[in-house]
Specification:
Blueprint lengths: L9 E2 L9 H10 L6 H10 L2 E2 L8 E2 L3 E5 L6 H14 L7 H4 L7 E5 L3 H16 L7 E5 L6 E4 L4 E4 L14 E5 L8 H5 L4 H4 L8 E6 L7 H16 L4 E5 L11 H5 L13 H10 L2 H9 L13 H6 L7 E2 L1 E6 L5 E10 L2 E11 L4 H12 L3 E4 L7 H7 L4 E4 L1 H16 L3 E2 L4 H9 L1 E5 L2 E5 L6 H15 L6 E2 L1
Parallel strand pairs: 4-10, 4-11, 5-8, 5-9, 9-10, 13-16, 15-18, 16-17
Antiparallel strand pairs: 1-11, 2-3, 6-7, 7-8, 12-21, 13-14, 14-15, 19-20
Helix pairs in contact: 1-2, 1-3, 15-17
Length: 482
């Protein structure tokens, strides 16, 4: 085991209870993943078991586990080892005396900040398993879109779950692994928690567990904050049904002090770990708020980074465009979601209406062509952005395309923010716009800024801004009746 910081600043202490931690550590070795002390501490404590009268198998003490630790310290390794250990339980003979018998097939759900990232991290985990001694336990790997999963000969499975209100429906899960928990709203818990009800009471189960891993987020990280606050209360009250492991700095610390880094980052300056020089370089180049969140796990609001102020948006007039001047279109860089926004005149300013917002991009081309031809309006998009591939198909269908130049995309973001502040954007109450505004932060480009599309699905907001920019700067067709 490698050396490094072991215990978190705030965390559930290890008790004398029996634990599956050593079994997970053995699985880590079999996977070629050498544990850091902090990872072993999390494994030993979060996998503690308790005997329960009337049940043959011991059960996990913790139903909810939250791990907050800085970037590049091995969170993904914890997720991989934890997931594969759960799937392998039915055939890990050394675990039987600890559990009290042989558990049945185990069901694991794998989530990340969005489906695209979840699939990428799942693929990495599958490759680690493929190169390990446990590959012979696998029956099949499914890679079909929407059914990405690993099926084991024991009947266990680990599958990718879409992090949305409807994605987990119909699943029964013993273990939920949520990486990058900072990217999700607290409402996601309402769709995840019911998936574990049946498995928690299954006689062949060791009890259901929800594990969330992340560095700290800003005010939009409501799920992470909910879990962290509940975990801190549990630590203070001695409640071991919720466990928290928080490697964070003190709120009043000097974020540029190497001594703070040393007592916060558990792998700092250890062989194979992150170096002080690298952290110093990050501190010198990153925004201080970002550095505090990502490396010191300190909650730091980021109001100055928001493209659109949520309160100003809420004060804007309500309504829809009288006519459609243009359709703004945008999608996420990963292609995980896309939006179509109608932009047109209104007595109080520019009217914007979110016409469509869906996961994936397979639907986008036919839908945009249909709506543009039906209403006889042009389509505005970022010509060099993630939707640039749409242009040939639209032009082939004789749809007028307004390709916003890269520099104008930056200007569109700034202009839209100003219009919102002046109350010049008219919109309906739409939770999808609210979500996009919460996720949309600034991406610096020289002395200017634009939309950062990598913080979540902000396509609705980007599409609206591009549409408004096109209306203000381009001679478009006369509007038809909307």
């Amino acid at each position: 085991m490698r050396q490094g910081l072991t215990k978190p600043r705030i965390g559930t202490p290890r008790s004398s209870a029996i634990t599956l931690g050593p079994i997970a550590a053995d699985v880590a070795v079999g996977l070629g993943c050498e544990w850091w002390p902090w990872q072993k501490y999390v494994g030993d404590t979060s996998l503690e078991l308790r005997r329960q009268r009337g049940r043959k198998l011991a059960r996990l003490t913790a139903k909810q586990v939250t791990v907050e630790v800085s970037r590049q310290t091995g969170k993904s390794v914890v997720a991989r080892v934890r997931g594969w250990t759960q799937c392998l339980l039915p055939e890990l003979i050394d675990a039987y005396p600890i559990i009290g018998g042989q558990p049945g097939p185990q069901h694991v759900g794998w989530l990340c900040q969005d489906r695209a990232n979840a699939i990428r991290s799942w693929q990495d985990a599958v490759e680690v398993l493929r190169e390990s001694i446990y590959w012979s336990s696998v029956r099949r790997v499914r890679t079909q879109r929407g059914d990405e999963s690993v099926l084991f000969k024991s009947g266990s499975y680990l599958r990718v779950v879409t992090p949305s209100r409807t994605g987990p429906r119909g699943l029964d899960l013993d273990l939920i692994l949520l990486d990058e928990a900072l990217a999700h709203p607290a409402a996601l818990l309402a769709s995840l928690n019911p998936t574990q009800a049946a498995r928690d009471s299954n006689p062949h189960s060791i009890g259901a567990q929800f594990v969330a891993l992340s560095n700290e987020g800003d005010d939009t990280a409501t799920l992470l904050h909910t879990l962290t606050e509940a975990g801190r209360r549990a630590v203070a009250e001695g409640d071991r049904s919720r466990m928290l492991f928080e490697w964070s700095a003190e709120s009043d610390c000097d974020p540029y002090d190497p001594a703070v880094w040393k007592r916060t980052i558990p792998t700092l300056d250890r062989p194979g770990g992150i170096s002080t020089e690298f952290v110093r370089m990050q501190a010198e180049t990153m925004d201080v708020a970002d550095f505090r969140r990502e490396y010191l796990c300190l909650h730091t609001p980021r109001p100055a980074q928001q493209v659109v102020d949520a309160d100003e948006w809420d004060r804007c007039p309500r309504g829809t465009p009288r006519h459609a001047f243009v359709f703004g279109v945008d999608c996420t860089p990963s292609g995980s979601a896309a939006s179509i926004v109608a932009v047109g005149p209104h007595d109080a300013g520019h009217g914007v209406e979110l016409i469509d917002n869906r996961g994936g991009i397979d639907w986008l081309t036919p839908t945009v062509i249909d709506k543009a031809k039906r209403w006889n309006v042009p389509v505005a998009l970022d010509g060099a952005g993630p939707c640039g591939w749409l242009v040939p198909a639209l032009e082939a269908a004789e749809v007028e395309v307004i390709k916003i130049k890269a520099g104008d995309v930056l200007a569109a973001a700034s202009k839209f923010s100003v219009l919102v502040g002046d109350g010049g954007i008219v919109h309906q109450d739409d939770a999808r716009f609210d979500t996009a505004i919460s996720a949309a932060t600034r991406r610096r480009s020289g002395d200017r800024w634009g939309f950062d599309r990598h913080g979540g699905d902000v396509s609705a907001l980007v599409a609206a801004a591009l549409g408004v920019w096109a209306v203000e700067t381009t001679a478009v067709l006369q509007p038809q009746v909307w």
